[in-house]
Design goal:
alpha/beta, Rossmann fold, binds NADP nicotinamide-adenine-dinucleotide phosphate
């Protein structure tokens, strides 16, 4: 039987691009996200090429995550690959002006949601002694930027959790990868700026950001290395993005 992948946050951006890429390569897909109509559209598009099980899921709801994994149809239940992609940034204000609810939502989704999905899927992978978890981190977890406060903190967690998983899984054949994208054009900025299209558009003005398909390529590559090879971390940026020197504030 072909391999199977569970992709969270498949309704947009990297998740949808991964769904299309893995479908094209013949993988069976389990796709989730909160927006049912997007899931319906994606299922209609991909079900002509590969078996697709799509279900609405808010990864912040631990009971719903466990129920969804327990309710997977038998032909999907042995998950070969979990792509923990669902996530978001909210706001770009300095910490002293941030909305606490935005911080809570990022922690609940990027950290706790990722943990719920991992914890629900991992025992089966260990039991089958086969499987791969690809987490979608961010360069924001590696380098600070103004306004990246809690978002960057959540992605630093994802990186360290990924590396720690590797140590816990030593002796099994289960693999773990953290993919760390830089600037990519998806719905990410629209969500960050709460639907303000002009603010979101300005992020990409005059630049050539990564496309969602570029990250799907990396995820697919990491997932298809020989079984004895583990890609620990992959950091990917568009050529137009680089680093700034340390900032020095000088008194006038
Ligand atoms: N774009 C970038 O520049 C960039 C760079 C580095 C890392 N990332 C990371 O890449 C991942 C994907 O983001 P993207 O750029 O593809 O953004 P996107 O286009 O906004 O996609 C985000 C996906 O996450 C899902 N999602 C959000 N909250 C969820 C929840 N509570 N439960 C289930 N699904 C949820 C959304 O689906 P629903 O709204 O339908 O639930 C959507 O499918 C995120 O983890 C993000 O932090 C993005």
């Amino acid at each position: 039987m072909s391999q199977s992948a569970l992709i969270t946050g498949a309704t947009s951006g990297f998740g949808a691009a991964c769904a299309r890429r893995f479908a094209a390569e013949g993988w069976r897909l389990m796709l989730c996200g909160r927006r049912q109509e997007r899931l319906d559209e994606l299922r209609a598009e991909l079900a002509t090429i590969t078996p697709v099980h799509a279900f609405a899921l808010d990864v912040r709801d631990e009971a719903a995550v466990n129920a969804a994994i327990a309710a997977l149809p038998a032909e999907f239940a042995a998950i070969d690959l979990l792509v923990n992609n669902a996530g978001l940034a909210l706001g770009l204000e300095p910490a002293q002006r941030c909305d606490m609810q935005d911080w809570e939502d990022m922690i609940d989704t990027n950290i706790k949601g990722l943990l719920y999905c991992t914890r629900a899927v991992l025992p089966g992978m260990v039991e089958r002694n086969r499987g791969h978890i690809v987490n979608i981190g961010s360069v924001a977890g590696n380098y600070p930027y103004p306004g990246g406060n809690v978002y960057g903190g959540t992605k630093a967690f994802v990186k360290q959790f990924s590396l720690n998983l590797r140590t816990d899984l030593l002796g099994t054949k289960v693999r773990v990868t953290n993919v760390e994208p830089g600037m990519a054009e998806t719905e990410f900025s629209l969500v960050r700026f709460k639907g303000d299209e002009s603010k979101a558009g300005r992020i990409y003005d005059g630049a050539q950001p990564l496309a969602a398909a570029d990250i799907a390529d990396v995820v697919y590559w990491a997932a298809t290395r020989p079984a004895h090879v583990n890609i620990n971390r992959v950091e990917v940026m568009p050529v137009c993005q680089a680093f700034s020197p340390f900032a020095i504030h000088r008194e006038a």
